[in-house]
Specification:
By secondary structure, the chain is of the alpha/beta class. It is built from four helices and three strands, in the order αβαβαβα. Strand 2, helix 3 and strand 3 form a beta-alpha-beta unit.
Length: 103
């Protein structure tokens, strides 16, 4: 069995395969503070998806009000090119829909 570094997360290949099968141009994933939607899990998924399809657009949806720490990490991920865009849950839904369409 392969040893993992502490704090690393393994992304199930089925999840990435399913995401790539459903996505034409991009993937938008919401984040949670725990479970499968944590920042680390979403970034592991983003890296694996990007590895398999470098052209796909990746965006994260996060709560900048109740989870400021994760929102900051998401902003930094955009700045370093790990993701293509991010959106805050606090924006109006029509703006969010238009911004995702434009991605």
């Amino acid at each position: 069995m392969e040893k993992k570094k502490p704090g690393t997360v393994t992304v199930p290949k089925e999840n990435v395969k399913e995401l790539l099968g459903k996505a034409k141009d991009g993937i938008v994933k919401a984040m949670d503070q725990n479970g499968d939607g944590t920042f680390d899990m979403r970034m592991d998924t983003a890296h694996e998806v990007r590895r398999q399809n470098p052209e796909i657009k990746i965006a994260l949806l996060c709560d900048n009000v109740s989870d400021e720490s994760s929102a900051y990490k998401v902003k930094c991920a955009k700045e370093d090119g790990s993701i293509d865009a991010f959106f805050y849950e606090s924006v109006p839904s029509d703006y969010l829909a238009d911004a995702i369409d434009a991605l």
